[in-house]
Amino acid sequence: MITIRRADKEDLRNLSRKLLTLLKDEESQVFREEAAKFGVPRSYIMKVFSEAALLEAADKRNATFHIALEGGEIIGFAETIKLDDHTAELDRLIVFPPWRGRGVGTSLLHKALADMKKQGVKMVTVNVGRDEVQARRFYEKNGFEGTEERTVEAPWGREIALVIYRRRL
Ligand SMILES: CC(C)(COP(=O)(O)OP(=O)(O)OC[C@H]1O[C@@H](n2cnc3c(N)ncnc32)[C@H](O)[C@@H]1OP(=O)(O)O)[C@@H](O)C(=O)NCCC(=O)NCCS
Question: Which of 36, 74, 75, 120 is deepest in the core (most CB within 10 A)?
Fold first, then answer.
């Protein structure tokens, strides 16, 4: 049975371990989607998903993590960051490849949005790569509207074309 809950500190340590294991393999689908596709250097992506970075995001950057579990194993997560009293950004939503297409991403998204709504958030944004057709379809099916296209320079120096999606809560 798949369950979804808000992550505690121990969950974040386990999540980091899982992500770093997947990212160690540069041929893995997760490395290709999260790093190679956007030219993210290996050292940068390993730092982003380190235990210290996830704990710091939760402690100091107003980030909330929800995890999906099956039989105690983490199979996906959502990270939302509260930007101010009424707005939040869905910073990451990842379902690990073997578990995709079964509704886990939708459930994670709805849990994360419900939690934001409870905290008074009225508008959630998410930045999606312009060419990420599947992810864009996913957000459109879930009530998000692509409002703006923007090209940003990523911290590792590469220009990335994004679509800013928004959804009112
Ligand atoms: C986008 C993502 C979170 C969806 O999770 P999921 O558990 O597969 O989604 P669900 O089963 O709830 O919904 C399925 C829908 O997601 C979309 N989708 C995106 N990628 C998919 C994939 N690899 N397999 C199946 N569906 C996918 C489709 O629109 C699908 O709709 P359909 O059934 O009409 O074809 C997941 O595919 C993922 O982790 N992708 C890589 C990371 C990413 O792109 N994140 C979003 C950008 S921040």
Answer: 75
Question: What's the mean per-residue pLDDT of the chain?
Answer: 96
Q: What is the pLDDT of residue 46?
A: 95
Residue 159: its pLDDT value, please?
A: 95
The CATH number of 2-168 is which of 3.40.630.30, 3.30.470.20, 3.20.20.150, 3.40.190.10?
A: 3.40.630.30
What pTM, to 2 d.p., does this model score? 0.94
Strands 73-82, 123-129: parallel, antiparallel or unpaired by DSSP? Answer: unpaired
Q: Are 78 and 110 in contact (CB under 8 A)?
A: no
For ligand 1, the distance from its centroid to the CA atom of residue 93, given in whole angstroms, is 9
φ/ψ of 47, rounded to 5, equals -70, -40
Ligand 1 pocket, residue 135 CB under 6 Å: yes
Q: Whose CA is nearest to atom 2 of ligand 1?
A: 105
